[in-house]
């Protein structure tokens, strides 16, 4: 639908397109022989900008065109009412001259956003202290500053019939695999939904295995981490209104990497990474192993440890499987209560609740001392995982391990491991194997361990990039 030459008719059209919203306003002014009408949403514009940079120049420069009269602000010309309506919702002010069909769109949006702050969920000891915020333009500005190359490509999308959420994908053209970009484009364009709540909606709508507990995209709030993955040939998704970015494709091992690993000695970085993987194994299987050994196979334990377990369970009437499940549920309740309550109260509940409940259940002979230690160690092991999504998976996986161990003992524990490994081996994201790359030759240099920087000469295999070399002469001074 095109614009009318009469401002009164256009006003009626805008009111209809905006469902007679009360914040849609118009202002008229006359300069010489010309009559102007301004259209805007008063909840979206900065009135000072409209007054100083649009109204006053139009009143002063009476004999020139609108574009010439207002040279400071960026202006777009259109005759399409749909495009103009979208501009209104973005905070633009529309100027029309009576008798002309052209609509002039000026950027006058009100900028109310929080300042760039330190990362909250991905704190590191060394490295950048800047975090992404909810404003997409600000986030793109951060990324442009960190990656000062014309090779950085930004592509916009609009998703959501009603929310019309603005999304940007970022990649380095000379490094990225074009097939991955095409597949990502196909999936984003095919999303037909009223609104999206990023990044959770995008993850679920694009995951290849919808019923997998394991995250298939990496979520981060750190611009420096987004930069490092872009340099590896991956693609980032940033969404307006969300302080988190999505990285894809990634492997299972990426969720155990931390920016700290690359800021310290490679031996320490490798040690901490192996520790995280080891803690993940403990977090998912330690309660199950305890149930299997107590219920079926206590003889495999050293005699002194077996006696200790027997003495701690002597007056416990509850089966080991119920002990493990009930204590894990109590741990989850305490964890959720700590997160949802205000910070001062939440910390008190976490400490006092854990001490009181742990003491009471042991003294009342509901659970054994050893089970309290096992569950506490399991909870702490899950906290060490840098990714919240992978940590959440580690919180749910112990339950099938416990039930398999309660039924079949250590054989059940081994079967549970087999099912998890088979599931991980079948996972793919954008055609990239999820689990295989970390165990394949040179890729182990930056998955299970963190090799010295001068050994990381090639990019990660899951990026499927043709530009594999990223370090050419790292220690040229040794010649």
From TrEMBL:
Record-level GO BP terms: spore germination
Alphabetical UniProt keywords: Membrane, Transmembrane, Transmembrane helix
Keyword Transmembrane: yes
Statement: the UniProt record of this protein carries the keyword Lipid metabolism: no
Transmembrane feature ranges: 274-293, 313-334, 341-360, 366-385, 397-420
GO (cellular component) term, any one: membrane
UniProt-listed InterPro entries: Spore_Ger, UPF0353/GerABKA_families
Cited Pfam families: GerA
Family as reported in the entry's similarity comment: Belongs to the GerABKA family.
PANTHER family documented for this protein: LEUCINE ZIPPER PROTEIN 4, SPORE GERMINATION PROTEIN
Protein name per the record: Spore germination protein KA
Organism: Paenibacillus cellulosilyticus
């Amino acid at each position: 639908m095109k614009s009318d030459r009469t401002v009164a008719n256009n006003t009626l059209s805008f009111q209809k397109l905006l469902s007679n919203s009360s914040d849609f306003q118009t202002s008229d002014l006359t300069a010489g022989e010309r009559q102007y009408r301004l259209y805007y949403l008063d909840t979206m514009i900065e009135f000072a900008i409209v007054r100083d940079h649009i109204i006053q120049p139009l009143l002063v420069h009476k004999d020139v065109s609108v574009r010439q009269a207002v040279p400071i602000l960026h202006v777009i010309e259109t005759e399409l009412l749909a495009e103009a309506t979208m501009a209104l919702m973005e905070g633009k002010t529309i100027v029309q001259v009576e008798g002309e069909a052209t609509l002039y769109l000026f950027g006058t949006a009100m900028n109310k956003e929080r300042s760039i702050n330190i990362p909250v969920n991905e704190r590191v000891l060394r490295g950048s202290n800047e975090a992404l915020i909810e404003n997409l333009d600000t986030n793109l500005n951060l990324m442009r500053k960190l990656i000062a190359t014309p090779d950085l490509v930004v592509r916009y999308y609009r998703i959501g019939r009603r929310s019309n959420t603005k999304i940007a994908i970022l990649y380095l053209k000379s490094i990225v695999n074009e097939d991955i970009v095409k597949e990502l484009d196909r999936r984003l364009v095919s999303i037909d939904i009223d609104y999206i709540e990023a990044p959770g909606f995008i993850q679920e709508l694009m995951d290849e295995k919808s019923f997998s507990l394991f995250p298939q995209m990496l979520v981060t709030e750190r611009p420096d981490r987004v930069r490092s993955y872009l340099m590896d040939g991956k693609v980032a998704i940033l969404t307006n209104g969300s302080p988190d970015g999505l990285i894809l494709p990634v492997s299972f091992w990426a969720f155990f990497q931390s920016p700290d690993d690359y800021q310290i000695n490679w031996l320490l970085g490798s040690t901490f990474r192996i520790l995280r993987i080891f803690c993940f194994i403990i977090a998912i299987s330690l309660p199950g192993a305890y149930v299997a050994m107590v219920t079926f196979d206590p003889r495999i334990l050293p005699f002194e440890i077996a006696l200790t377990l027997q003495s701690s369970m002597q007056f416990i009437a509850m089966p080991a499987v119920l002990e493990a499940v009930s204590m894990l549920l109590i741990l989850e309740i305490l964890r959720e209560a700590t997160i949802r309550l205000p910070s001062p109260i939440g910390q008190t509940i976490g400490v006092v609740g854990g001490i009181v409940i742990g003491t009471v259940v042991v003294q009342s002979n509901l659970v054994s001392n050893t089970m309290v230690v096992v569950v506490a160690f399991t909870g702490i092991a899950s906290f060490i995982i840098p990714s919240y999504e992978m940590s959440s998976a580690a919180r749910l996986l112990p339950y099938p391990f416990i039930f398999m161990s309660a039924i079949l003992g250590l054989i059940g524990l081994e079967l549970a491991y087999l099912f998890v490994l088979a599931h991980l081996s079948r996972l793919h994201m954008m055609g990239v194997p999820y689990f295989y790359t970390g165990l394949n030759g040179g890729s182990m240099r930056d998955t299970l361990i963190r090799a010295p920087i001068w050994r990381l000469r090639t990019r990660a295999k899951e990026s499927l990039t043709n530009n594999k070399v990223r370090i050419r002469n790292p220690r040229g001074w040794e010649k």
